[in-house]
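Question (not urgent): is this output format expected?
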Amino acid sequence: MKKKRNKTNHYLTIITTIMLTSILILGGIYAATNKALGWHSEDQVYISVNGFTGTLQQAIDNGVLKGSSFTVGTVSSTSNPGHNFDQIWVSINGNEKTLRQAFLDGGLCGTSNPKTTYSSGLSTGNLATQIEVTVPGTKSLQDAINSGDIAKVDGGWISWTDGGWQYGAWDSWSTCSKICAGGTQERTRDVTRTKTRTCTNPSPFCGGSGCSGSGTDIQTTKETQTQSCNTQACPVNGGRSINDRVDSARGQQIKALYVLPSDGQDESLDTNGKIAASVSLFQNWLAGQTGGRKLRMDTYQGKLDITFFRLSKTDAQMQTYSPYVREEIETQLKAAGFTSPEKIYAVYYGGGNPRGCGDSTWPPTSPPGMVVLYLKGTWPNAPACSTNPLPSPNGPGYLEFSMLHEIIHTIGFVPECAPHHTLRGHVSDSSNDIMYAGSKPWNPSILDVNHDDYFMHTNVNCLDLSDSNYLEPA
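Got this back:
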């Protein structure tokens, strides 16, 4: 006799099997979603961008999602056991769209208008607020979008662009190192090289850091040129002298120079006897006023020693120094070696000055300064200096008296203690006085009218020209 089966046990076995199977399936699903925050797994979201196809987390780890330029592919059903990026909703700067559309529109940077809530009318899918990612740190996909953690790109420099060397204008040539027998002179100019670069390789994006350092690199240097100058031999006897020849006598004296600007016309005043003749005219006049005493002039072998010198600047350039043309002449002459502390340098300058025909230092300096007679000078509302001949044909004229006037200033006269002192080194008592200055026309014919201001006066506490070593002994 057959044994009858127990149907109840059979049904229990089937039910138990079904329940166990269900538990296994549900347990597998739970394992896939039981992340640290209890959200959907980034490993179950599949995307295809810029040639990459894989999970969202793989794309994040590989830096595929940085930046704003994407080409978007499709995810096949065979390669996608989880969620397709068409099924994920994100908010980019307040605009709700699918994850796929977000890539088409420029990526996952939502820092300008972060949003973590969505409208109720979204299509079926999963929200970025419920998908966990590691960026690093664990947060929702939406929070990672809002913070820029996924799309952020740090900036990088492009290569330097070299602008090449830029050359400035040359300075003026320096004063020649020698006045004869070959010297050198230099000029310089600025040279600049500028290199630039931009922080666009790549450009910072979505809160990424900028580039450290500067986008400009400037190098500066100077270029120097040297040339020979004053290559002519130094004269030995007679002719033009371009150096201060050996003095016939020692001591304090007046040294004559014929000086021209770099473009000045050479009238040979030093060699044709005109400067020497002019000096003789005021010397003879002075001897007649002092009882035979003249200025101690620098001589060579018994004759007036006149040195020729050409400046490094043009006449126009020199006149831009006004009212300090004399000072610039003095600077160049000193640089060339005319620095004797015992000499007053009397310069016959074949260039212009818009402030008159003569110039000197007062009060006197130590060592003495330089006296300049501007042969091409001008003065407002007055005839040009060149209208006066050098030398004057009929006794000392305007230029002779002007040179003597300026020399007397540089020796130290007229002192302030003089009873008729006025206007910085002048006298006011007579327009016939060679040291007069005032409102009347100057007609020099007397050295110290009445001898009460600066020559042979009786004021023992005031300087007297008759005591000066620049005058020959009585």
